[in-house]
Specification:
The protein is an alpha/beta fold and 386 residues long. The protein has one domain: 3-Layer(aba) Sandwich (Rossmann fold), CATH 3.40.50.200. The strands form three sheets. A seven-stranded parallel sheet has the order 5-6-4-7-9-10-11, sandwiched between helices. A four-stranded antiparallel sheet has the order 1-3-13-12, with helices on one face. α5 runs parallel beside α6, α6 runs parallel beside α7 and α8 crosses α9. The two termini are 43 Å apart. 52% of the residues are buried.
């Protein structure tokens, strides 16, 4: 296995809007896994021992010794062999967001996200990567400038890969690996760097409206703020009225409830919004996760894997990251799988299917930590097929 090294982004907060207080994520850890991706070595058990044979030493008539026959060979025990995993199996094993959500049940039912557009409102996309080849919608745009399809920061590529990176036997695959990406870059053209990407609510609002116009079924927003904008909330209402599912991050401030903008979006979306919280591989909340709280927002709150999530970086290498941004992307991909499997469902019905069939953890029923619980596509698809 390649050595895991810390990237320069470790501990850096990705910001939207130094003045507005908007934030794209607030990710705490980044680790590069390596351009050659992960490899597995298979060890065979040790060589078998060969037992020795001895002839008789007895003497019979006349003291003539009995001549021993040739030694009987003891068969060499064979060590059990482990089949070498295929590239597809290795890729699936690295796709831990999909594993944590029990997405195999959705795949077994034929759901892949094909034909579903996911709008990712973030820092753009590394459009040349094979993970997105042939699946970037022409409506993708820089709504804050004129840069074309680029990602100066990397965050947009990360979350897009968790949502829908291809299942191609390379690296990892996204939750809805055949979905179509509509990428909207909301970052400042002059200030966006690998360390921070300031913006404002205007590009977010324009991106929501453009996503609806382009036929997006899912809008993924790995952002949060403690300020609200009424024009942005009006765009959320328009999206919900168009049967679009909106998924927004709870935030990474260790707070007892989601951030103000997130709560306002959930209220404006009237049942078409999921607030994404993050859990680790053991099902415990991410250390910096904003919890569901005891207010109305808890009804929209759902957790997905958000700790050490494997994803594709903007240079094509694998990295791991932690934060509610990546839980947002995973839930967005899950919503796309449901939308493909049941195209007649409204946005609020897709949201309800995911929330009602979540794995109940913490206190019984909806609670202030986990909200509705942990994303469970196995239970969701079992319910859809009844």
């Amino acid at each position: 296995m390649n050595q895991v090294k810390a990237l320069p982004l470790d501990g850096i907060e990705h910001c939207i809007g130094k003045r507005t207080g908007y934030h794209i994520g607030a990710e705490r850890t980044v680790r590069r896994i390596g351009r050659s991706f992960w490899t597995r070595s298979l060890a065979l058990a040790g060589a078998a021992a060969i037992a020795g044979c001895g002839g008789g030493g007895d003497k019979t008539d006349g003291g003539i010794g009995v001549v021993p026959g040739p030694p009987t060979a003891t068969p060499t025990p064979t060590s059990p062999t482990t089949p070498t995993p295929t590239a597809e199996q290795l890729e699936a094993g690295r796709s831990n967001a999909a594993i944590a959500a029990n997405a195999a049940a959705a795949y077994a039912a034929g759901a892949t996200g094909r034909g579903i557009r996911i709008a990712v409102i973030d820092t753009g996309i590394s459009a040349g990567l094979a993970e997105f080849a042939g699946r970037i919608d022409p409506a993708s745009a820089d709504v804050a400038g004129n840069r074309g399809l680029v990602d100066q920061n990397g965050h947009g590529t990360w979350v897009s890969s968790v949502a829908l990176a291809a299942r191609d036997g390379i690296g990892m695959h996204g939750m809805a690996f055949e979905a179509t990406l509509i990428s909207f870059n909301i970052s400042s053209p002059t200030e966006c760097t690998p360390q921070a990407c300031p913006s404002s609510s205007g590009p977010v609002r324009r991106a929501i409206d453009a996503a609806v116009a382009a036929g997006a079924r899912i809008i993924s927003m790995s952002l949060s703020s403690d300020q609200i904008d009424e024009n942005l909330l009006a765009a959320v209402r328009r999206a919900a009225a168009a049967n679009v599912v909106l998924v927004i991050a709870a935030g990474n401030q260790q707070a007892d409830e989601p951030r103000l903008l997130t709560r306002a979006v959930a209220e404006a979306g009237a049942g078409s919004v999921i607030i994404a919280g993050a859990h680790d591989a053991g099902g415990s909340p991410y250390a910096f996760n904003n919890r569901a709280g005891s207010g109305p927002a808890a009804a929209s709150y759902l957790m997905a894997l958000g700790v050490d999530v494997v994803m594709t970086g903007r240079d094509g290498s694998l990295v791991t990251q932690s934060g509610t941004s990546f839980a947002t992307a995973a839930i967005s991909g899950a919503a796309a799988l449901v939308a493909q499997a049941r195209p007649a469902l409204t946005g609020s019905q897709i949201v309800s299917a995911l929330l009602v069939n979540a794995t109940d953890v913490g206190a019984p029923g909806r609670d202030p930590v986990y909200g509705n619980g942990i994303l469970n596509l196995s239970a969701t698809f079992a319910a859809l097929q009844r």
